[in-house]
What we know:
Order of helices and strands of chain A: HHHHHHEEEHHEEHHEHHEEEHHEEEEEE
Mean pLDDT of chain B: 92
Strand order of the largest sheet of chain B: 2-4
Structural class of chain B: mainly beta
Low-confidence stretches of chain B: none
Largest interface: A-B, 62 and 30 residues
Low-confidence stretches of chain A: 149-198, 208-246, 276-286
Structural class of chain A: alpha+beta
Oligomer: heterodimer
Strand content of chain B: over 45%
Distance between the termini of chain A: 64 Å
Shape of chain B: globular
Helix content of chain A: 25-40%
Number of helices of chain B: 0
Largest sheet of chain B: 2 strands, antiparallel
Number of helices of chain A: 14
Number of strands of chain B: 4
Radius of gyration of chain A: 25 Å
Shape of chain A: globular
Amino acid sequence: LVNAWSQTPTKWYPLPIAVGALLLVVIQYRKRVGQKEVYVDEDGHEVVKLKGPWAVHVMGALPLRNLSRVWGYMNSLELPVWFRPTGLKVYAWIFGCNIDEVEKDLKEYKSLGDFFYRKLKDGSRPVADVILVSPADGRVLHFGTIKGGRVEQIKGSTYSLDALLGIETRQSSRTEVFFESGDMAEADHKHFADINGIEYSLHELLGTQVHNTPANSGTSTPVVESAPAPLTGASELAGAVKHGERTDASVPQEGSASEVVAHDASVATQMGIRPTLERRRSLSTASVKPGNALYFCVIYLAPGDYHRFHSPTAWVVEKRRHFVGDLFSVSPWMAKRLENLFVLNERVALLGRWKYGFFGMVPVGATNVGSIKINFDKDLRTNVGSRRGHPLGTYTEAVYSAASPILDGQPLLKAQEMGGFCLG
Amino acid sequence: STVVLVFEAPTDFQFTVRDGQKIKVGEPLGDV
Lengths: 424, 32
């Protein structure tokens, strides 16, 4: 090889011009593919559009939400008792469910939807002694860090916050949720990628609301700061739920105020989370603390998987943002092809904090599982009504301050069941 | 369906999973 390399004479041939031109075309084309196609509305905001091969556009034209509701209805039909063991075993065999760990006898599941939302036997999911555990059964699609706006491992396209949320964040004097507006510029670049380089802006996924945006701007959902709800009955809370208003959706704890405070204080100590005043500052003026970084992880739940999700760590959920969206399939095949899947689909962004700072968990619905349930949020209804009245990126928000006055949010311990996905 | 986690953690946080790995509730995802 050394001889061949060193002794072979080098001969130069003129490239035919056509080949050279073809090379330039290929280089140009690849450069263009690498660029982000930007659709802007009349105000110059980027609007996230359905982008991808023709199959994606075909899916986009389907009435996915209605299909999902029909699917849910079909799966809620009661099965005859004699048929349940056989039918559910066939379902389990097709989708690879482990029937041995199911909590109840198969005869007790009235419908397929009931079986889909099954509980598991106690002890079937031991919890590892680490700070972060998996919140669900499934497959790790992707994980990584968000550093300076770029995901370390994968290139990708980015989404503009302004375009997707339709909020003039640049002029906003204050961003209420996570970052000071100064950080917003930095936060704009907080992106992460789900599959093979498809990137999202942190804010597009979790939503950002400018506190002083006038309600009639039509560009955002007005948010009203509601005082923490006193320990009242659920009906009063239910009454407070209106579109576009922030409300306190948590169910207040039972017991006297002093008992609740004592309990919360012990929970706070156990979780390593400081009391509210500290939190308030941390949430509204938080940027990533020195020595910390932002991470993300995406877990895909296949149809046969156990579909209840649990708390991945000890944290406090302070609010949730329900984004009404489409219900594209979130299978790895689709996630590879539909660029902005997670910010198009219906999702519930649960936002809060853990001992290291910000913590967010976003269950994202899909065509067959359009309903997302949160155990401590009785008012949440997903996949209801049409999406027309909810421009992309707007959300209804609820806070959970009534659940724990001291922690100003719903405390969750590691592996505690939080809710789940239901068919339809 | 999908669950996305976004969180702040110390820079010495390490994921203990691989892309495409099957995982169950309670199994380790990462640690410092």
